[in-house]
Amino acid sequence: MLNFNFQNPTHIHFGVGQIEAISKEIPLNARVLVVYGGGSIKSNGVYQQVIDALGKHTWFEFSGIEPNPTYDTLMKAQDIIKAESIDYLLAVGGGSVIDGAKFIAAAALYEGNGEENDPWDILAKQKTFTKALPIGAVLTLPATGSESNGNAVVTRYGNKRPFKSPLVRPLFAVLDPSVTLSLSDRQISNGVVDAFIHTIEQYLTYSVNGKVQDRFSEGLLQTLIEEGPKALLPATKENLDVRSNIMWSATMALNGLIGAGVPQDWSTHMIGHELTGAFGIDHARTLSIVLPAVMKVRKEQKREKLLQYATRVWQITEGDDDARIDQAIRLTEEFFEKMQVPTRLSDVDLDSKDIDLLIERLQQNGLTALGEQGDITLEISREILTLAL
Amino acid sequence: MLNFNFQNPTHIHFGVGQIEAISKEIPLNARVLVVYGGGSIKSNGVYQQVIDALGKHTWFEFSGIEPNPTYDTLMKAQDIIKAESIDYLLAVGGGSVIDGAKFIAAAALYEGNGEENDPWDILAKQKTFTKALPIGAVLTLPATGSESNGNAVVTRYGNKRPFKSPLVRPLFAVLDPSVTLSLSDRQISNGVVDAFIHTIEQYLTYSVNGKVQDRFSEGLLQTLIEEGPKALLPATKENLDVRSNIMWSATMALNGLIGAGVPQDWSTHMIGHELTGAFGIDHARTLSIVLPAVMKVRKEQKREKLLQYATRVWQITEGDDDARIDQAIRLTEEFFEKMQVPTRLSDVDLDSKDIDLLIERLQQNGLTALGEQGDITLEISREILTLAL
């Protein structure tokens, strides 16, 4: 096991009816900005529950945060923050809204290096910051884990740019599984697949004998494999246990715990980001296209863990090592198909001539040494994308 | 899954050499009281590492906290706390030292209800408190999980009394697995068994379909079953991966995570506490005696989970339900035997005439409705103890 630091102070309120917990979590003298996306929280009743809970608070709202939130949209929130002396953000939505709130929180108090204070530097130059507005979150779409981590991704000029800081980790998060019942199949699919791949990226590397981390990851993968498809089937999609298990898995998949003390390989995400940036494909659907090809191209480097994955997650016991690995990859693809997401570039109408642009973008963004060993060069990324055709 | 609240802000510093992290975790202007037990931290080098790390701090020390720490010992620390205006506690030791520090921290700032302020009320009357000194922990014995939870057990008049509060949860905990190399086999055994049973008590109840919690628990149980015996075998006992996996399992077993959203059954601990109180048997050794009998007596109530335990933790696939459950219980006992702890009252020279005293003590302490359903009456506790003879 590698040395590690781990801390996750986000207070989780899990269960039906927990939205009312925000009334006690947010100080009564706070000036709250409720940030959200489109109008879905108004039609599904979440908005009403939130404003009921804020009955004694002073609050304002900022809406219109889009999927893959953009810098330009998020910077618009600064006007109301200044005008109304906002000192607390409540993000109500999925990963995009919560990620957006994180950037708004950091930008509001950003002082830069003393000479200039352009919050764009947080994304463009990975400048650190020492203050951010406190954030609470009401999660409506289990997927990214943003509700209890300090990570965010913001888009500008067609590029997705990540930043992270413990200062933007939500102080609390409400996870009410009944809220997810109004999600579309596509949203559920994308969320389950995103959480699955977050887990894989902290698991499918090389072994450091981190038995707790491995088994926790395997437990999340098994749970998502079992429960994900049920959330799409008419007979089981309304089942709150199914929704609960998916929601808690997605949070645990990226709250820092399973990745503490083990190597990580975020190449699928990095290559996937370019697919979203260049062609506007849903984040999760880029991942389900890239991951199987990463598994195949990196079979030797990931051999030991692929075998463990085959045995423990898929219970494959027959055949030689290569056959077991191949079957595990095939079952992974079948799981994605059950989740109704693409597994090939051709499924989203891309072909070999689109690969050059993706490689160019990886190069422009300096993503030339990906993977747990930093040895996924542009050439290997090209190999991965070619195999994903 | 049941509704739940979960928050665990303890900052974990895991790995060889991490003791130096305390120099940054404790504010430089703090007046620190280092609390510890006997002299073992002086002979194994931990004490020296701690005082090296506190080189720029103002610190004092209080030693002599015994296993199953007593109220009388702990209250002696109040003198130096007052005399030196201590405002930070650093607990260096195992669960007893950290539990002791928690009581010291609460007692130091205890104001009671305004009429009297006897810290004994925290234990005797379960009085709540609103302030406690901040605590950091350097863990030397993986077992109780006390390093990242808000629970403690203190003994007075021969009775073990628990209390809990988020105010006494350590702000940070250093987990350096190399520190555990100087432990005796008996300390390692006790620690592994304690962590194993903590996990069982949050797992072996009735199913609420909490798939993440179940799989995390199963992962901890499997890890402890695999790694525990290795820590006793000459060929593997010095292996740092073994020590790391045990140490991280023990912390995760009782930091609140696996028990969030699921029913719990602490009857083994409650009955075990009386065995320690009445006969001075090591805490973990009371648990290994009581648990198999609890499993047998509560077989019907725990049937579904016992079958899951048999299948997933022990990979038992042959035989009918009863046979699989019986085999899982037998394998649990064999695991305890490998860990060199007793599984019967007769192993610690107790017999049927000692049971009356234990039942009497359970009654005196109001422990007449134990278990996940509160239906383990004194009569059933007697049945459990009788089966444990």
TrEMBL record, chains A, B:
Molecular function per GO: alcohol dehydrogenase (NADP+) activity; butanol dehydrogenase (NAD+) activity; metal ion binding; methylglyoxal reductase (NADPH) (acetol producing) activity
Keywords: Oxidoreductase
Cofactor (UniProt): Fe cation
Lineage: Bacteria, Pseudomonadati, Pseudomonadota, Gammaproteobacteria, Alteromonadales
Domain Alcohol dehydrogenase iron-type/glycerol dehydrogenase GldA: 9-177
UniProt-listed SUPFAM superfamilies: Dehydroquinate synthase-like
GO CC annotations, alphabetized: cytosol
PANTHER family membership: ALCOHOL DEHYDROGENASE YQHD
Coiled coil (residue ranges): none
Domain named Fe-containing alcohol dehydrogenase-like C-terminal: residues: 191-360
Protein name, per record: Iron-containing alcohol dehydrogenase
PROSITE patterns: ADH_IRON_2
Gene3D superfamilies for the chain: 3.40.50.1970, Dehydroquinate synthase-like - alpha domain
Assigned protein family: Belongs to the iron-containing alcohol dehydrogenase family.
Pfam families given in the database record: ADH_Fe_C, Fe-ADH
